[in-house]
Design a protein that fits this description.
Elements (H helix, E strand, L loop, with lengths): L1 H23 L4 H37 L1 H10 L39 H26 L24
Helix pairs in contact: 1-4, 2-3
């Protein structure tokens, strides 16, 4: 029966450690959900940046190859060809380049969790508490006593080793 008590103590401590670690620890379900949320945000930002990159690549290809696009951009920047006449109009705003919004900076945030040492300390404390409870129960039952006299119950017929006459 004593082995079962010690195994109960070990089982209780291990169970509390595992539950604490899975609920609040570094590899807990809470941390997993926080990291999944960060992954979703980063994926969304990545998709936006990829669409901007695609637009810029199309614009670059057009600027390299299409003469009409090159001429249109040159006119936007106040360039003229040889056969065009320049007319200056005052009061208009100057040309402004189109700026692309590349999004906001996303910083990695560490998930909140309880340290592994604290999880182990909770498991050890639970094991000690169960051990203390089992010791108190044994003392109440009388299985453990702290008196100097040992009362050994005698069962059966006592046999004395006396010399026969």
């Amino acid at each position: 029966m004593k082995r079962a008590k010690y195994l109960t103590v070990l089982f209780a401590g291990t169970l509390v450690y595992i539950l604490t670690s899975l609920t609040f620890g570094q590899n807990s379900f809470k941390c997993y959900s926080q990291m999944e949320e960060q992954k979703r945000i980063v994926s969304k930002q990545k998709a936006e940046i990829q669409s901007i990159n695609t637009e810029l690549m199309l614009e670059l290809t057009a600027l390299k190859n299409d003469k009409a696009v090159i001429a249109a951009y040159a006119r936007k920047m106040d360039y003229v060809t040889d056969d065009e006449k320049l007319v200056k109009i005052t009061g208009l705003k100057p040309y402004q380049n189109q700026l692309y919004d590349t999004g906001t900076v996303i910083r990695h945030t560490e998930p909140e969790y309880v340290s592994e040492k604290l999880c182990k300390a909770c498991g050890i404390a639970a094991a000690m508490l169960v051990l203390l409870v089992l010791l108190i129960v044994d003392i109440k039952k009388g299985e453990i006593s702290f008196s100097k006299e040992k009362n050994i119950p005698v069962t059966g017929i006592p046999v004395y080793n006396l010399p026969q006459i």
